[in-house]
Amino acid sequence: MTDGAIVIGASSGIGEALTRTLAAEGYEVGLASRRVERLKSIGADLPTKAYVAYMDLTEAERAREAFVELADAMGSVDLVVISSGVGHLNRDLEWEPECETIDVNVRGFTAIATAALEHFEASGTDGHLVGISSVAAVFGNGGAPAYNASKAFVSTYLEGLRHRQAGREANVTITTVEPGFVDTEMAMGSFWMCSPETAARQILRAVERDRRHVYVTRRWRLVAWLLKAAPEPALRRLFARV
Ligand SMILES: NC(=O)c1ccc[n+]([C@@H]2O[C@H](COP(=O)([O-])OP(=O)(O)OC[C@H]3O[C@@H](n4cnc5c(N)ncnc54)[C@H](OP(=O)(O)O)[C@@H]3O)[C@@H](O)[C@H]2O)c1
Q1: What is the CA radius of gyration of the chain?
Q2: Helix crossing, 13-24 with 196-208: angle to 10°?
Q3: Catalytic residue annotation
Q4: Within the chain, what is the greatest distance between any pair of CA atoms?
Q5: How many CA atoms lie within 13 A of 151 on its CB side?
Q6: What residue segments make up the domains of the chain, in order of their start?
Q7: Each residue of 172-184: pLDDT tens digit?
């Protein structure tokens, strides 16, 4: 049977590149996000069968229903990637961007992560859940407080799911991806930036190797380590002007 993957946030950036990479590897792909016309055009370009679903993660209940409908339509889903995310520089602490970030990156993310595990456990097949977090997860950021906090949630939530999974029968692998800067509309910097295609290749390799955690690119491990080790006053000085 052909492998099936669902990519949430397949309409641009890392999600689009990963969708194309997975299809090139023979996966049938379910593409989900709000920009359905873009999803249809990407899907039409793939060498394998594509399924398209409208999904707005700010409507968590409806998004879960859309996930179930998409998985049912595909028949076989081995891999679910949650790439959707929003990030705003918001030093003025305007409520709307903070709220959207939490709705999409925390509530919406959790809605689909739980739906994916329910799907794998109910179908009794091996499964793989990949969450796109960020190196931003490892430090508080005065320029984008909700974004970094939301990514800390994503990384810690996925770690919790791995611990939970260890005591269960279903064979589900959970991979946390923490990119540095990737050349997409969301990039908040250009230092050590990689292309979405490079990110996609490295994520696919992590999936093939059943990795629990990867930095994209690998050198970002060093930055994450330094940020984790640095005392808070040093970070405050470093990010005072960001
Ligand atoms: N680029 C970077 O430097 C970088 C670094 C670290 C981590 N990341 C993470 O990588 C992931 C992908 O981002 P990207 O860089 O590829 O940026 P992007 O091109 O802006 O992609 C963002 C994706 O999120 C989807 N999305 C946004 N709001 C949504 C909503 N309400 N419901 C459903 N989907 C929604 C978008 O689809 P629609 O607009 O069609 O809904 C789009 O597919 C994000 O989680 C981001 O935090 C990026």
Answers
A1: 17
A2: 50
A3: 147
A4: 55
A5: 25
A6: 4-239
A7: 999 999 999 999 9
Residue range 48-72: mean pLDDT, rounded: 98
- pLDDT above 70: residue 241: no
Q: Are 160 and 110 in contact (CB under 8 A)?
A: no
Taking the alpha carbons at both ends of the chain, their separation in whole angstroms is: 49
**Residue 148 CB–ligand 1 contact under 6 Å:** no
Question: Can you give the pTM of this predicted structure?
Answer: 0.97
The answer to whether the beta carbons of residues 210 and 127 sit under 8 Å apart is: no
Nearest C-alpha to atom 14 of ligand 1 is from which residue?
Answer: 13
Closest ligand 1 atom to residue 15 Cα is 16
CATH of domain 4-239: 3.40.50.720
Helix (H) or strand (E) holding 24, with range, is helix 13-24
Q: Is 184 in the pocket of ligand 1 (CB under 6 A)?
A: yes
- Exposure of 14 by Cβ count < 10 A (0-12 exposed, 13-18 middle, 19+ buried)? buried
Pairing of strands 79-82, 50-54: unpaired
Round the average pLDDT of the chain to a whole number and report it: 96
131 lines ligand 1 (CB under 6 A): no
Residue 114 CB-half CA count within 13 A: 12
Site of tokens 């329910």:
118
Q: Tell me how far apart the alpha carbons of residues 30 and 52 are, in angstroms, rounded to a whole number.
A: 6
∠ Cα 50 55 58 (to 5°):
160
Confidence of residue 237 (pLDDT cuts 50, 70, 90): confident
